[in-house]
Design goal:
Helix content: 25-40%
Mean pLDDT: 84
Shape: globular
Number of strands: 19
Radius of gyration: 25 Å
Largest sheet: 8 strands, parallel, barrel
Strand content: 15-25%
Distance between the termini: 67 Å
Length: about 575
């Protein structure tokens, strides 16, 4: 059907576009079902070409979007037919289309009557998604971004809404009717990947430093699907400046049979892939590790400086932002040393990247705030990070000092000291839901951690990523979207119940957590015993094809998830008995 002048909403449509204007359109030939037509779907059993119509006017960001969409369908044995559009387009009846546009380039949104006013005063990455069925039999998904980054973020979010079911070799893919405008509450949303898994040598694969490059390369894409746009990495080992050698130290030192060069390659693989995904990369620097060398001690300060220089030499060209941390083992508190040494570290990194940014965190160091109003020890370009969680008084104090405000989150989305379920979605929901609106304006960046990797507890990162976009999003919706995207729509309700049961069964007292965040011990209650029995029944009902592909570029096996979750449920049952 040729596009004709629109006579009524969602019926006959006319699009005449001058050849000098590029239109950013992807036309994906899979069926989009409405709430009234849940059976409407394209069954894919063999390779079938999908026309992907695009424009390169937006540059590299559009290239990422093209790859993201084409890879999604190619993984499901669909071929993409990439077509660059610069003149005229037509729609066929009874087909489904995904149309991608930006706020600066949205002729089809205008013709379809989409209201984009909600994007006009929004931040980068904001987007509107509208999925609907037209009266003439055509189905449409519009993803309109504030900018090209908004389009890409919209595609990642769309994957959480698509229902992808696999029967044999046949994929059935459809999308419910919905309309949503999404604006990021925090502009820089950072996922911290901590290699604390080194402390559990009997299970080496929970430490990503033992992963191969292919698996590592999927991690940033998974985090983008969660909603993050920044990655924080750390190298938690001790440097012996007297011998010039790296040695075992904090958290047991290097993993078995690994060298510092091996770890450097792991971190650089993650950094490069994060940059390919358009993400910022931060490096956490243990300012005063417990190796006996202190900035405050004039005798050992040169050794400490050599340690910082070594880090800058290894990573300075790669990282965009550094975070210095001072109070814990090898504590050097107050404000003079943290700020002065932070300036030294920053200057070393600037030798390799003049644009690198810097933050000094206030973890268990309230005295740091006494020195931030002055530039005697550090310029105002050194940001200050509030420890653990948002604090209105501290945020205002940092803001009034002329420095940027960060939040270095810890003991919220994982627990570094104990290997176990570590599923804390209810705690995360409580914290984010209570955030005041001014936090969105005050806070420059915020991070949250994952310490054990490739486990079901990565659901925490999905909750965090979604809450960093909209703190008020109901937890129920987030958990369902995750379970549907990871395990398929037929398993979503059961998997959601299983996760909720495992979370409720946790009873450990977590170091560093305030009393009100600790989970009550419900193991002995009759209600929970019945819930565990039901969860064990439901987990046996979960059916996932060996050929299943999750909607997200996942870092682990969903089949391993089932094994882990069932193991934890059985352990709960044994403790009850």
């Amino acid at each position: 059907m040729k596009l004709q002048k629109k006579k009524n909403k969602f019926t006959q449509i006319d699009v005449m576009i001058r050849s000098s204007i590029y239109i950013l359109i992807y036309i994906i030939s899979f069926s989009l079902c409405s709430c009234k037509m849940q059976s409407s779907a394209l069954h894919v059993a063999s390779k079938k070409k999908i026309p992907v119509i695009y424009s390169s006017v937006e540059g590299i960001e559009i290239e990422r979007g093209k790859k993201l969409l084409s890879s999604f369908f190619m993984d499901r044995e669909l071929e993409s037919d990439l077509i660059e559009l610069n003149a005229l387009s037509s729609f066929e009846k009874n087909k489904a289309y995904i149309i991608l546009e930006t706020l600066d380039n949205h002729p089809l949104s205008d013709i379809f009557g989409l209201d984009l006013m909600g994007l006009s005063n929004s931040h980068s990455e904001s987007h509107m998604i509208k999925a609907f069925s037209s009266h003439n039999g055509g189905d449409f998904i519009f993803v309109v971004g504030k900018d090209a980054d908004g389009v890409e973020s919209g595609i990642h979010y769309l994957f959480s809404k698509l229902n992808c079911n696999l029967t044999g070799n046949n994929w059935r893919i459809y999308c419910p009717v919905f309309e949503e405008i999404r604006k990021p509450f925090f502009s820089i949303r950072e996922a911290t990947l901590c290699p604390t898994g080194r402390a559990i040598p009997d299970n080496p694969m929970i430490n990503y430093e033992n992963w191969n490059s292919e698996r590592l390369s999927r991690y940033p894409s998974f985090l983008r699907s969660c909603g993050f746009n920044s990655l924080q990495l750390m190298e938690l080992i001790t440097y012996n400046a007297s011998t010039g050698e790296w040695q075992g130290g904090y958290r047991g030192g290097l993993p078995k049979d690994k060298t510092i060069d091996d770890i450097e390659n792991v971190l650089k693989t993650l950094i490069d892939e994060a940059h390919n995904e358009g993400m910022r990369v931060s490096q956490y620097i243990w300012g005063s590790p417990a190796d006996g060398n202190k900035w405050d001690d004039i005798r050992t300060r040169p050794k400490r400086q050599e340690f910082y220089k070594e880090l800058a030499k290894r990573y300075g060209e790669k990282v965009d932002h550094i975070i210095t941390h001072w109070v814990d083992e090898g504590t050097e508190g107050g404000y003079e040393t943290p700020l002065t040494a932070t300036m030294f570290i920053w200057n070393e990194y600037k030798k390799y990247n003049p644009n690198v940014q810097v933050t000094c965190d206030a973890w268990f160091n309230k005295d740091l705030y006494n020195g931030i109003s002055s530039e005697k020890y550090a310029s105002k370009d050194v940001a200050i990070a509030i420890e653990r969680w948002y604090n209105k008084e501290r945020a205002e104090q940092i803001q009034n000092s002329g420095r940027k405000v960060g939040i270095w989150g810890w003991y919220l989305s994982d627990f570094e000291m104990t290997y176990g379920p570590n599923i804390y979605t209810k705690t995360l929901d409580k914290y984010y839901t209570d955030l005041p609106e001014e936090a969105s304006v005050q806070v420059d960046w915020i991070s949250s951690e994952l310490c054990f990797h490739g486990l079901p507890s990565r659901i925490n990162m999905y909750v965090v990523g979604r809450k960093m976009w909209n703190p008020k999003t109901p937890l129920e919706n987030i958990l369902y979207d995750y379970c549907k995207a990871m395990y398929g729509e037929p398993n979503a309700d059961n998997m959601k119940f299983i996760y909720e049961t495992v979370e409720e069964g946790q009873k450990e007292v977590r170091y560093g957590m305030v009393e009100k965040d600790r989970y009550a011990n419900v193991l002995e209650t009759l209600e929970f015993q019945e819930k565990v029995d039901l969860a064990l029944k439901k987990i046996d009902e979960v059916r996932i094809s060996p050929h299943w592909i999750s909607n997200f570029s996942d870092i682990a096996s969903v089949h391993d998830d089932i094994i882990n979750l069932k193991t934890w449920l059985i352990e709960f049952k044994q403790q009850i008995q």
